[in-house]
């Protein structure tokens, strides 16, 4: 599918830095004093500048996959619901209200009569229906198409078992009423409606320009911001949408989301006042984290995220679950969080983070060298003998040898060699290339992470359904698929939690297609005397239209 590969505005602007060489407090002082020079044409300043991380892969909501993509698409395109900035719970978006049938399966949404595109045309229920059908169309290639599989007949239509789109379980009743029929009651369906994949996109422009629709000028937006430009290796600039239905409560006129994935560079920009917000803890040098955690501009919070290793289950010897389990049992997770991440992360015994609603915790994996060696020997590779070298795929910005992903990769390689006698070669890619390789199953083992899209175990477990576009392991297990289907059709919350736990045990413990490493700990960096409207929540979602710049005092 189409990905913007050329600057959409003037020539890209780059920042030039000289990296510091010292650690601890001395390094922090060096960072503060480090001179920064801008290379290229200057721009009028934005009201808010955010370090967003790696280059977005796509601004098409149907194709957006990474957190960097989603943070840009969410302000541009809104769905029937949106996330509350404080709790991240779904609240009315383009739909001002909705009704739910007594059986919990039919929603009727009432669109706002003042909802219009940024170009002035009305947003209708037909636009919603067309946008959802586009996500389900396999030709679109939407990685999150499975989020609509809770809708009646949606999965069958997506997979080609059903060809008549009129039988899809959603329809426009008239210009402002949209009806959805679910396969079974789905307690998190309104959360899904707030996710960017289900946002409303401009049909007329997409039908006219096809894959290049994101280059349209003006680009019709349904959210609080419009796209001013996207400059590769620099920034995405957003400008307030004056026609947005809630425009009076959108305070910031211009927002820049910088493409910076190197922690030293990101922290330099923040410390010298050229950026207002750092969203992610991995955009701060890990060696400074102990020092920075005590500062008032460091905001720690718990959120639903896990760091794990994917196994390519299609490649020998990783097609043998004993080999996969051995590799997982050889990971000393506590050593990694204490020596490398050092941010309060918890060693992970499962895939679903603690604190997730409706979750029954499991202990599917642990550090057990003896069991790991025994399993590898049972698979025919005692002490690693006869086992080919494995390739571990990970990403960093630039050379990236000092970044956290690289440090974890080195530690994993050492553990697998020490415990199992297995040789693992490290394969470092730029993020765009990394994602393509992971999608194409061009790896043996791969760095991975996931942030919950909604507060339910299903957001982690359904990744590994056979037909999920985000599976990226080649693993397909009908028994696992059936367990999740039973769980999501189960009306009793306790029984549902037990079924989900059984599925998690099968995925992580028995099949070991993923090896959890740690549950993440969230950090934001912003100065409360300069920025407000950013709140800690379990989904780490922070709508830009809720953010304010604090006026300086007298």
Write up what this structure looks like.
The protein is of the alpha+beta class. It folds into 3 domains: 1-58 and 223-297 and 526-554, Periplasmic binding protein-like II (D-Maltodextrin-Binding Protein, domain 2); 78-218, Dipeptide-binding Protein, Domain 1 (Dipeptide-binding Protein, domain 1, Alpha-Beta Complex); 302-521, Dipeptide-binding Protein, Domain 3 (Dipeptide-binding Protein, domain 3). The protein is built from 16 helices and 21 strands. It has helices spanning 24-33, 67-76, 125-136, 154-159, 189-194, 203-209, 263-271, 289-292, 321-329, 333-341, 369-378, 404-420, 431-439, 458-461, 478-488, 493-510, and strands at 14-16, 37-39, 48-53, 81-83, 90-92, 95-100, 106-111, 170-172, 177-181, 225-231, 235-240, 254-259, 277-278, 298-311, 346-347, 390-395, 424-429, 445-451, 514-525, 531-532, 548-549. The protein has a 6-stranded mixed sheet with strand order 15-19-14-18-16-17. It has a 5-stranded mixed sheet with strand order 10-11-12-3-13, with helices on both faces. The radius of gyration is 23 Å and the shape is globular. The N and C termini lie far apart (52 Å).
